[in-house]
Design goal:
Length: 254
């Protein structure tokens, strides 16, 4: 039997059992194993990882772990600056787009609320989600860590929080998206883009009371839903403010 010493950093510890968190630990193994297979067997999806050091040297996922290796594993979306070192990803995704698993419908609506192109259907299966993520260069958001272990998924994130507005805050914070928000530019229901429309053109669709005080209307270019600053507007603004201020109750180990 061989053994290697593993140390996982920051939020990667979320995936480990308590006795392995934030400390170096010995892992006993046999045979030839890539470092990717080994870290995933320890519970950490490869999509969460940005940098692996073997005995102080940056290695890729295919690196074969040797007896007595010291392996350090660092997360994606980490605030410490690791850019001088070789990263596992060739380049970050330039436009932030998402595809979400079946458990994250409410989060998809909220990401649309702040302007992100976010695909969601409650009948996407795992292979479809993985394929969409790769083909359309979308970050896969999921509550299923096994989905992130699929080889074709290169950009994925395991959402820790339970409540949708905490999930929104978590995603914005972890991916540092504060400068990319475009609130009220996208349809929360279908992901279409919202465009301004003359009030007169849609007058018959507007409640009479609304027509009296509101002159600013937007329409979804895909499903035709009308948007205006009605009674929900204040509540939605509060959700955005909550997300931007980074208040989150998610239980990270950071
Ligand atoms: Zn729509």
């Amino acid at each position: 039997m061989k053994h290697a010493e593993f140390r996982f950093y920051e939020e990667l510890n979320d995936f480990l059992p308590p006795h392995h968190r934030k400390i170096p630990f010995r892992h006993v193994f046999s045979g030839r194993n890539s470092v990717k297979d080994m870290v995933e067997s320890l519970g950490v999806p490869h999509t969460e990882i940005d940098l692996i050091l073997a005995n102080g040297t940056s290695v890729n996922f295919q690196y074969i772990v040797e007896d007595n290796d010291r392996i350090s594993v660092y997360p994606s979306f980490e605030s410490i600056d690791i850019t001088p070192l070789i990263q596992l990803r060739p380049a970050p995704l330039r436009i932030t787009k998402f595809v979400l698993d079946v458990h994250l419908g409410r989060l998809a609506s909220l990401l649309r609320l702040v302007g992100f192109d976010s695909l969601y259907r409650n009948d996407f299966d795992d292979p479809e989600l993985a394929q969409l993520s790769r083909d359309e260069k979308r970050i896969l958001l999921t509550r299923d860590r096994n989905l992130l272990k699929r080889n074709i998924v290169t950009h994925g994130y395991f959402v820790r929080s339970n409540l949708p507005r905490d999930q929104l805050s978590e995603v914005i914070h972890r991916m540092d998206l504060y400068n990319s928000l475009q609130p009220f530019k996208r349809c929360m229901r279908c992901n279409g883009v919202l465009n301004p429309i003359e009030k007169d053109l849609v007058l018959e669709r507007i409640p009479i009371a609304t027509a009296e005080y509101c002159n600013d209307f937007h329409i979804c270019d895909f499903c035709g839903r009308l948007y205006w600053k009605g009674s929900h507007y204040g509540k939605l603004k509060q959700i955005i403010q909550y997300a931007v201020e980074g208040k989150t109750s998610c239980g990270t180990t950071r």
